[in-house]
Automatic annotation (TrEMBL):
Catalyses which reaction(s): Hydrolysis of DNA containing ring-opened 7-methylguanine residues, releasing 2,6-diamino-4-hydroxy-5-(N-methyl)formamidopyrimidine
Cofactor(s) this protein cannot do without: Zn(2+)
Signal peptide region: none
Record-annotated membrane-spanning stretches: none
Residues in FPG-type domain copies: 228-260
Similarity-based family: Belongs to the FPG family.
SMART domains according to UniProt: Fapy_DNA_glyco, H2TH
Domain Formamidopyrimidine-DNA glycosylase catalytic positions: 2-114
Key words, A-Z: DNA damage, DNA repair, DNA-binding, Glycosidase, Hydrolase, Lyase, Metal-binding, Multifunctional enzyme, Zinc, Zinc-finger
A Gene Ontology biological process term: base-excision repair
Name of the protein described by the UniProt record: Uncharacterized protein
Keyword Hydrolase: yes
Length: 260
């Protein structure tokens, strides 16, 4: 699933392609991806409209149209965006298509799990943005202390608490902060919370730069080759063998030597 750094670059690259451009056609090939929206309503809300802005909120992409309406997209596990020539043959996995003058933006998902809606209430549920000025050490501490039980990884990937961090980057953040992912969140010490608070924006901002270099203008892809710990064999800090465990039903990678 794409996480904050991936989606931030999709947003950047989409802006360079479709900002202030008019949608001249739309196709709904898998209507099940539309939430609280019929195919005819999707066409009515998109065709003839201009894309005025694109935002990222957590793991959502938000298209702001000239009509003042917002199209909210969640790619889920396997969803992808494709920017192609309109004449290019459609994939059997294409769910939705927005046509511009010469190119089309295709929403592709073989599972059809991706979600597209014009109900902006979806983004109202999103938690604190970790790269915003509103993200403070005090707010992070409050999130960690919110419940007596629950591990720190679970708390950081809860999208209603902190937006955009997923399974890959939480491993990187906790490694950087030298905190074991299974630690009880509410029992972290003040110096550990400080380390975590510093690690979150640092890891995410560095990742945004690395993803930008690798995607080179594309609007899909989840590069992970630059990560230090997630799905790696050896800790780059101490050389110890990386350990993989199941935590919250997710594969979790950490260094048993560096992370306590």
């Amino acid at each position: 699933m794409p996480e904050l750094p991936d989606l931030e670059i999709y947003k950047e690259n989409l802006k360079s392609k479709i900002l202030n451009k008019k949608i001249i056609g739309a196709s709904v090939l898998k209507p099940q991806v539309l939430k609280q929206l019929s195919a005819s309503n999707f066409n009515r809300k998109t065709v003839g409209k201009t894309v005025k802005n694109i935002e990222r909120q957590g793991k959502f992409l938000v298209f702001n149209f000239s009509s003042k309406e917002k199209m909210v997209i969640h790619l889920m596990l396997y969803g992808q965006l494709q920017w192609v020539k309109t004449t290019e043959k459609k994939s059997a996995d294409a769910c939705l298509i927005l046509e511009f003058k010469d190119n089309s933006l295709r929403f592709v998902d073989g599972t059809a799990w991706m979600k597209v809606t014009f109900d902006s209430k979806e983004i109202d549920k999103v938690g604190l943005e970790p790269l915003s000025v509103e993200f403070t050490k005090e707010k992070l501490q409050k999130i960690l202390k919110k419940k007596r039980l629950g591990n720190v990884k679970e708390r950081l990937v809860d999208q209603k608490l902190i937006a955009g961090i997923g399974n890959a980057y939480v491993d990187e953040i906790l490694w950087k902060a030298r905190i074991h992912p299974a630690r009880v969140a509410s029992l972290l010490k003040n110096n550990e919370i400080k380390s975590l608070y510093q690690a979150i924006p640092k890891i995410l901002r560095e990742a945004v730069g690395e993803v930008r270099k690798r995607l080179k203008g594309e609007v899909s892809g989840e590069p992970r080759d630059f990560l230090a710990i997630h799905r790696k064999k050896e800790c780059p800090q101490c050389g110890a063998k990386i350990k993989r465990i199941e935590l919250n039903k997710k594969g979790t990678y950490f260094c048993p030597s560096c992370q306590k």
